[in-house]
Here is the input.
Amino acid sequence: MGENTKEVEKEINSITRKLSALSPASSSPKFSATRLMKQLKEKEATLTLLQQMGENTTELDKEIIDIRHKLSAKAAGPIADDGRLPLKVLFFDLDETLLTSTDPSVNAGSLDGLSFLGQVPWAADPSQNVDVIVNRGIVKLLRECTNQDHVKWYIISAGHNLEKLEVMLAKCGPSVVPDNQDIGVEIFGHDGKSGSNNKRNAIQGILNKLETQFMISEALFIDDTQKNINDVAKISKIRGVKVPEGRWQADWLDITLMTNKNIADCFYYIKSGMGALKKTKRKGKKSSKPKGKKSSKPKGKKSSKPKGKKSSKPKGKKSSKSTNL
Ligand SMILES: [Mg+2]
Here is the structure.
C-alpha cells in the first residue's frame, strides 16, 4: 500500500502544479515577487561564497542584475538594497477633492466630466438632501489604487462626511476601500484640534510604519486647500497635488473636485517606473504573458476650461463650501 501512495502523490503534485499554473494567483505580482526575492537571496549567498573563494563571478553578477530587473518590473521600481519592495502611496483629502456635495437644483451631475452618485441628507438641514458628485474618472482611479499590489491609498480628512464617502465607495464596488484600516489610522477628524493629529502628523505616521516594510521614494498628497498642501509637503517624500478651485460651475455654484489633469497625474505616478521596464522586457524573449487587463491610460485632457467669472450666489442655497474641510 505504501508504495502506491508515492505514485499517487506524484500525480497529485503534478496536477496541482498544472492547476496553479492556470490560476491567476501564480501570475499575481505578489507571488512572482516573492519567488524572485527568494531566487535573489540564494544567488547573493552564492555570490558571497564565490567572492570569498576568489572565483570569477561575472556570470552570477549578470544573473543577479537580471533578477533585480525582473523584480523591479514586477514591483514599481528598483528594490532597496535591504530587499524592501517599492511602494506607491497616495493620500487623498475627501471633501472638494474626491467628492463634493451640491444643491440638487443646480444638477451638477450633468456637467461635462462629472457624475452624480446619489444623495445624502444636508448637514445644515437633514430634512433636505444634497447630491454627491465626483469627477467621472475617480472611480477608475480608486479601483486601480485598490487592485494594484504595489499601491496603497489613504483618505485623510479633517471632516466627518461618512455618508458621502459611503455613497462614493458603494459606486466603486465592494472591494474598493482605502488602506486606512489596515494601518489603524482613522479616515476622519484630522483637523489638528483637541489633541487630534493634523494631516501632516497622520501622514508622517503612516509613512513611518510603511517604510519598515517598503521602500517609498515619493508619495502623493492630493488636496484642494493650499494651506494643507504646504504643510504636508514639509514631509520630504511628499509631492503635493493641488486641486484647483472652481474648475466647474453649475449655475451659481463653483465646483471644486479633482480634475482630469489631477487624476492623470495620479495614474502616471502609479505607473511610473513600471512602463519603461516593461518595454525593455518585451524586446527579449517573451517570458511572462501580458495581463489581459485593459489599459488604464487616462483619456486626453479636456480642452475647455470654464473658469469664468464667479456669479453671485443666492442666499439660503446649499453651497458645497459649507462643508469644505
Ligand atoms: Mg478639502
The radius of gyration is 25 Å.
